[in-house]
Amino acid sequence: MFELFLKLHFFLALLAVLALLKHVLPFSHQAWIFPVASLGLWGLNTFLRLSRIAYYNLGGRPPNRVGQASVTHFLRSQEEDVVSAIVVTVRLRRPLSIRPGQYVYLFFSDMGIRRRLQAHPYSIAWWDDSLNAMNLSFLIQPQSGISSELIARNSIRKVIIDGPYGKDLKLDDCETVILIAKGIGISGIISYARHMTYRRVSKDKDHEAYRRGLITRKLDVFWVMEDNCQQDWASEWIQNLQSKDAEKVTTITETFRD
């Protein structure tokens, strides 16, 4: 349904502009200059987007033998062979600057012709470097559709990324920050906790501009889990933050729903 909505939205928008252009063509130049300008801006935006996709997905660091992305599975329990969530880690070809709260569209190349034309947005939960990320991780709870097909895979041969998109809420401009998530919602807020913690603990001289301006003194993360298995989803990332936070600025509270 997401793909149907996306393609239908694009088609109807294009149809509306073309219909408007046909309607005003018999009139003066002043009448049709606006739909022509809108089509020109639309075409320029498409060109720039495709150029960006080509730059970040062609050349640069070649993919390894295993594939460009690895898939880690989390089971609901040891007794049940049911996958509760997966983490897809994509190995980028070129370094990418990431901000918290951003997402990218992912194209998976080895899932058949129909799936290759589909791009789904996933929030960036984790990345390996604060300034020049080369690996992006996505926490995904499988649903019907393309995410359900990732359950049977341990790796993906080729992944095309489009992005990042989204707006950083600039939470590091606040002295006290409280982040609250339930279940899979942790994938949307862990990036903010990572960003603010890494800004504070970074000792690299090249990161002076990155550290400058952070005024957050206290960060509380509350994660309400719907099942015991969900604790494993982000445990590695949470332990990473706790090990780096010597000043104990970040407090992470994990609770289970009754």
Give your account of this protein's structure:
The model has no long low-confidence stretch (mean pLDDT 84). The protein folds into three domains: 2-57, no CATH class; 69-165, Beta Barrel (Elongation Factor Tu (Ef-tu), domain 3); 171-256, Rossmann fold, CATH 3.40.50. It has seven helices and eleven strands. It has 258 residues and is of the alpha+beta class.
How is the topology of this model organized?
Blueprint: H1 2-24, H2 29-57, E1 69-75, E2 83-96, E3 103-108, H3 113-116, E4 120-123, E5 126-127, E6 133-140, H4 146-149, E7 155-156, E8 159-165, E9 176-182, H5 186-201, H6 208-211, E10 218-225, H7 235-244, E11 250-256
Parallel strand pairs: 9-10, 10-11
Antiparallel strand pairs: 1-2, 1-7, 2-6, 3-4, 3-8, 5-6
Helix pairs in contact: 1-2, 5-7
Average pLDDT level: 84
Ranges where pLDDT stays below 50 over 5 or more residues in a row are none
Reading the helices and strands in chain order gives HHEEEHEEEHEEEHHEHE
Cα-based radius of gyration, to the nearest Å: 22 Å
Shape: globular
Total domain modules: 3
Measured between the Cα atoms of the first and last residue, the distance is 33 Å
Number of helices: 7
Described by strand count, sense and barrel closure, the largest sheet is: 5 strands, antiparallel
What is the top-level CATH class of the largest domain? Mainly Beta
Decide which structural class fits the backbone: alpha+beta
Helix fraction by DSSP (H/I, runs of at least 4): 25-40%
CATH fold title of the largest domain: Elongation Factor Tu (Ef-tu), domain 3
Largest beta sheet: strand ordering? 5-6-2-1-7
Q: What is the strand tally? A: 11
- The CATH architecture category of the largest domain equals Beta Barrel
The fraction of residues in strands falls at: 25-35%
The named CATH superfamily of the largest domain? Translation factors
